[in-house]
Amino acid sequence: MKFLASLTLTAALATTALAQSISIQAPVDGTTVQAGSSIIVEVIQHASPTELVEVALAIGLGVPNSAPAIGGNVLYNGPFNPQFQNTGIPTGQGPSTANLQNFTVTIPASTPPGLMSLNVAHFDLISERVVPHTETVNVTLNVV
């Protein structure tokens, strides 16, 4: 009985490990942004070898290296519905096509100058067993 439970857990973890993740295409790490300005956050959903059910995405701004925390300022919280698009990236320099979605968010005017972490938390369900999967990715922004 314990062996079966262990095997099930191992299979679930392996399925989660095989699930392809998201990444932040824009803004790039190190981008300088103005407090109070709007920016576009482009999130790519990489190809998955298993079936995915998208649940939600949250975008937050916090102190650097705060992941997996989203940060003190939640800039977006809602559905994630990436669509197949041409990324405009030349072949060999990145994916020329991808499932992606753009989000326009506003950097709070009260954000202090300096380095901040733009964090994207993603929640989906993977495989025919519908295993919950979460991840957080981030880039560092220089707020002025």
Automatic annotation (TrEMBL):
Range of residues in the leader sequence: 1-19
Matching Pfam families: Nis1
The entry's keywords: Signal
Name of the protein in question: Uncharacterized protein
UniProt source species: Mycena venus
Species classification: Eukaryota, Fungi, Dikarya, Basidiomycota, Agaricomycotina
